[in-house]
Amino acid sequence: MQEELICPCLCARTLLSACTSLWTAIYAVYQPLQHLAQSLCCLHRTTRGQKRKVQSVTTAQPFGLSTDARGEATKTALQKAAAERAAHNYKAKPVPANLRHKKQLALPEPHLTVPETCPMPGAAVHEHAEDLRRQQLAEEEQQRRTHASFRAQPVRTGHGVAIQPSEAPLTVPEAPNLSLQDRTAACKAFDAAVAEKQRLAEAEQAAAQEAIRLAEEEDLQEHTRDLQFKACPMQ
């Protein structure tokens, strides 16, 4: 029994010592590699710094736009034209004597045209027709006024009428038997029957709804009782 316990312990110790030696060897190899990597990084940084120092500084250059060139050319052309105009000496010509002392001719006095009426053969016919129309209008106005004036009706004179007593029997009034009254009574009875039928239907519907509600409540109570925890009896 003791030999069986000692063997696993020896194996564990041997494995632990082997792992320790392996980690020691790995660390011994990793430390020089780490120093080499640090040296390379420092060398790379130094090289990059030197390259950056050697690079030339970028200087901003103005843009050469074609619009500026066209503006300068136009300005030069205008200045040249102004200089050419200033170099010439213009001399105005004198005004001719005939234009300086111009004689105005007297205009003749205008003769105004006086309109004159032209005798036409249809003018007399027109005047005659206008006279007839005015005369007809006057007659119509006179007739209208005559008809519109008030005229009293003459008083009628005649013999008086004597009223004689009647010997015919007097008419006794009787109430008419109209079919409207029968139809009204039938309509009232029909409406009462319909209302009673509707009331019974509503009562039956309310009773059915109440029965359904009670059944649902009973089912709910039964379901609630089934859901309650019940301990099993001890055996």
Please provide a written account of the structure:
The protein has helices spanning 2-54, 66-87, 97-100, 121-148, 179-227. The protein has 235 residues and is mainly alpha-helical. Mean pLDDT is 77; it is low at 1-6.
Residue runs with pLDDT of under 50 for 5 or more positions: 1-6
What would you call the shape?
flat
Number of helices: 5
Instruction: Give the distance, in angstroms, between the N- and C-terminal Cα atoms.
Output: 49 Å
Largest sheet descriptor? none
Which percent range fits the helix content?
Answer: 55-70%
Q: Over the alpha carbons, how many angstroms does the gyration radius reach?
A: 71 Å
Order of helices and strands: HHHHH
Quaternary structure type = single chain
Helix and strand composition category: mainly alpha
Keywords:
235 residues, 5 helices, flat, mainly alpha, 66% helix
Question: What's the quick description here?
Answer:
Helix content is 66%, strand content 0%.
